[in-house]
Amino acid sequence: MLIKGGLLPALRMRVALFIPCYIDAIYPEAGIATYELLQRFGVEVDYPLHQTCCGQPMANEGDQANSAAAEKLFVENFSGYDYIVGPAGSCVKHVKQHFDAIPQTDEVKTVRANTWELVEFLHDVLRVKAFPWAYFRYKASLHNSCSAIRGLHIAQPSEHMAPYFNKSEHLLRMVEGLELVSLDRPDECCGFGGTFCVTDEAVSARMGLDRVHDYVRNEAEFIISPDMSCLMHQQGIARKAGIDLKFIHIAQVLNGGPF
Amino acid sequence: MAAKRVDPAANAAAFIDQDDIHEPAHDRNLWAARMKRDAAAKAIPEWEDLRTIASLIKEHTLTHLDKYLEQFEANAIKRGAKVYWARDAAEHNQHVWNILNERKISSIIKSKSMLQEECGMTQFLETRGITVTESDLGERIQQLDNQPPSHIVMPAIHKTAADIAQIFSKAIGTDPNNTDPHYLNEAMRQDARKRFLEAGAGMTGANFAIAETGTFVVCTNEGNADIGAAVPRVHIASIGIEKILPKVEDLGVFIRLLSRSALGTLATQYTSHFSGPRKGGELHIIITDNGRSKRLGMDDFWHSLKCIRCGACMNTCPVYRRSGGLSYGATYSGPIGIILDPTFDESKYSELPYHSTLCGSCTEVCPVKIDISDQILRWRKVMAEKKFLPISRRLAFSAAGKIFERPNLFHGAETAASAALKITPHFLLYNRALNPWGRHRELPHFAKQTFREWFIQNKQQNQEDKQQP
Ligand code: SF4
Q1: A36 CA → ligand 1 middle, Å
Q2: Which chain regions cross the lipid bilayer (chain A) (predicted)?
């Protein structure tokens, strides 16, 4: 399907919105922005009400037994859609690349293959060329999560010797007023790592603090990310250290709110 | 008796908390190595192809290891070396001891060998009255401080110059306040020289062993392996079975990758080829398994045998840089340690796979394309299946699993606060008594309305209307 231009007519594709649990409870505005943004492009979005979690937190612990039920439910909720779009790189990475606690039936495989991270979906499927409604007059830094970079390849990892690309950055460059500042260590892990952030608290906090200092050194006012889980950790660190930085999901910037 | 479980998180916390100097310097120095590696890799247009070729050569060799090992042995013998086989550390050490004992050798010098480290060889020999002197500067520092190496390429990288000045002042009488690296280096050189000249045997490892020629190759930056091989009459080399390469022409691929990956230099200062004993000397080669063939049989983990011990995965690992290598409590630290150490002792090293954010940087830098990050996750599955996970964590996850399984239980009273409470037990506060989230972080502010509530309030009607034909 080739779609040109920024504003699109209603598309005949069945799209479901996948809102991970922590976005639901802690950052609903990121979910709202995602929903509104997709609608602006003429995408009709369903939100299956019985969704809970993709199983990632348990699976990352190696706990297959306890992630199986969540994975099964995910498939029940999202089966039958052409696209399942989630504003969360690490959850989508889990669905696409791990998600093997349940038997890999055709239905499971289809759901996994149809699941997309929001930036990828905008960039690769909708092929968005403009966000005419978006205006963001700040110096900001981009934080792509490791899952999004090295798992989903929404950006070229700095370690890998191939031409540079960065899909989140590409989208943000279309936003008027926004000045992106670069970092000393652009794709260094921030230390969130799911349960790692509590089981390995000292290292996690030190990594987060180093990341936050990198933002401060480079004079960012806002940190924009397609992954709120990393930002939840970084925001907690910055607040505790008394550092004034604002953290926001990329959908909010691209949609022009809600802030 | 089962060995005590290593707690890398607690050890790393101690490394970070000791002062404001060590951890930041450690992180900075290793990050600089990573940056140099990036620049060196970028300068080679075919870098990624080299990695692929290296990986394929290793996979091929490991798949036909028996054939290539026998070929190496036959050719090494033809060149006049004496070849021994060791199934494990005990056999390896016994071979070394026999060689030394038969010749009444009481002091040896050795260059860095992770295999000898694995075998606990130094301690084994010392208890039998042999004086062992490390000839690599970093290893010597660690030896004098009674510590194992903390990094496979830079053994004392967790120490500052001030630490080293203290150690040298006690060991060789230098000025404890003089931290000038040149001064310290020169003092150690003077002290070491006489030991080198007195040693009855020199021990080395090997970076590569070439099947078609029976030659092995040792790469160092200090030339210390060459002294060990050239000064004493007897040279003993310990070679892990995975070090084999089929042909000399394969070597070029690995030499180009090794030092660029390790330190960002074009090649190690010394790349020495040993083909048989030198005139009037003896060359003994101990081909050692020590768990490697068992690893080769593990479907999920055999790729770890491709490792060429460059240390790039350690330099890039954000967790390793903040932890210091000794935190892993094992011969191998950092990402490669996480996937190797459990093959020696699953219970003792069961926590290591959790000492990672799974960021994946190690996989991307590895010159032989080991899927390190995926192996770390697979080790977690092994640990969870075998119930090595701490019980508090097991219960938290099983509770979370039950909640996520049932939407009605999960959504419950449909308020943000209640949803948050269901997420927090495993996400943030699984151990409430210690509240590890809160020591360095504020809790997130929970929203007044969940996304779901917002949706039901504002959009659900549309969704239902739409679904009516
Ligand atoms: S695993 Fe790869 S990067 Fe790490 S030491 Fe081995 S070869 Fe080097």
Answers
A1: 45
A2: none
Edge-to-edge order in the sheet of strand B131-134: B82-86, B282-288, B234-240, B201-204, B107-110, B131-134
Helix (H) and strand (E) counts for chain B? 23, 10
- Side-chain half-sphere exposure of B157, counting CA atoms within 13 A: 27
Atom 4, ligand 1: residue with shortest CA distance: B313
Q: Count of A–B CB contacts within 8 Å?
A: 245
**Contact at CB, A195 and B430, closer than 8 angstroms:** yes
Q: What CATH number does domain A4-125 carry, 3.80.30, 3.40.1350, 3.40.50, 3.20.20? A: 3.40.50
pTM of the complete model beyond 0.90: yes
Q: Does A251 reach chain B within 8 Å, measured CB to CB?
A: no
Nearest residue by C-alpha to atom 3 in ligand 1: B366
Is-cis flag, bond preceding A258, omega within 30? yes
Judged by CB atoms closer than 8 Å, whether chains meet at B441 and A157 is answered as: no
B37-66 b/e (C-beta count within 10 Å ≥ 16 → b)? bbebbeeeeebeebbebbbebbbebbeebe
pLDDT of residue A6: 45
Residue B18 neighbours by CB under 8 Å, 6+ apart = none
- CA atoms of A148 and A88, how far apart (whole Å): 8
What does the pLDDT read at residue A66?
A: 80
Ligand 1 atom index nearest CA of B372: 1
What is the topology classification, in CATH, of domain B44-290? Rossmann fold (3.40.50)
What the block records as the tokens of B304 is: 């770890």
Lowest mean pLDDT among A18-22, A184-188, B329-333, B367-371: A18-22
Helices (H), A49-165: 56-60, 64-78, 89-97, 106-113, 118-120, 146
Confirm if A14 and A78 have CB atoms less than 8 A apart: no
Is B216's pLDDT higher than 60? yes
Q: Which of B52, B62, B308 to mutate to test the pocket of ligand 1 (most atoms within 8 A of CB)?
A: B308
For an interface test with B, the pick among A61, A247, A259 (most B C-beta atoms closer than 10 Å) comes out as: A61
Q: Which tens digit of pLDDT belongs to each residue from B138-179?
A: 999 999 999 999 999 999 999 999 999 999 999 999 999 999
pLDDT tens profile A75-117: 999 999 999 999 999 999 999 998 999 999 999 999 999 999 9
Kindly report, as residue ranges, where domains of CATH 3.40.50 are found in chain A: 4-125, 139-254
Confidence grade of residue A65 (pLDDT, cut at 50, 70, 90): confident
A46 to chain B: closest CA residue: B463
Mean predicted confidence (pLDDT) in A226-246: 93
| Contact in structure between B367 and B153 (CB atoms under 8 Å) | no
Phi, psi of B349, deg, nearest 5:
-105, 25
| Orientation angle between helical segments A106-113 and A64-78, nearest 10 degrees | 80
Q: Which ipTM did the prediction report?
A: 0.93
Give the largest CA-CA distance in chain A: 50
Q: How confident is the model at residue B63 (pLDDT cuts 50, 70, 90)?
A: very high
Residues contacting residue B289 through CB under 8 Å, at least 6 positions apart = B85, B86, B87, B88, B240, B241
Domain range summary for chain B, segments of one domain joined by +: 44-290, 408-467
To the nearest whole Å, the CA of A46 is away from the closest chain B CA by 7
Q: What is the CATH number of domain A139-254?
A: 3.40.50
Q: How far is A197 from chain B (nearest CA, A)?
A: 7
